[in-house]
Amino acid sequence: MQEQDIKKIKERIINYVYTISTQPILLKDLLEANVLYNEKMYVDPAKLGFRLNLKRAYMVYFAICAIILVPIITISHFLLIDVNFHVSIAGTVLMTSAVFIGFNFFRAWLRDAITLKLIKKAWLVHFPYFPYEKYSKKVAEIYNEARKKELPKKELQQYIMQKILENKE
Q1: What confidence tens digit (pLDDT) does each residue in 50-64 have?
Q2: Is the Cβ–Cβ distance between 157 and 142 less than 8 Å?
Q3: Rg from Cα positions in the chain
């Protein structure tokens, strides 16, 4: 599979599994989410306006597991047919635990993907002339400075823009 195909599949999974609000993301919520995301912390879904549909997430995960596990089970069945049944039981226990533990990793991967997608989308609204990849860490540092100075919301965007332009030169 090509990288474009993988991105399309990922995008379809995200759009199917999540309910996304039509409300715009406020500047302060964007800045907080950006800081948390850059620090590899959990971002509150309510700030970015998304919610996981757990039933759909289970269905997608089940389909992915079926695609991966059916060939593995078929091959291992023929390989383990003459082996002691204790090995088969141990293998079954390991595979079952891997499937259940894997769902938590799948959910975390989905949450990180939707978080980054929504941050980038809101970034284009609030900072259209500053690419996210280049300025996200700088803006996070500036926002932390602004929080320490306890700037009001009205002055926040002006302060951040001014600092970005000072650092850009």
Answers
A1: 999 999 999 999 999
A2: no
A3: 22
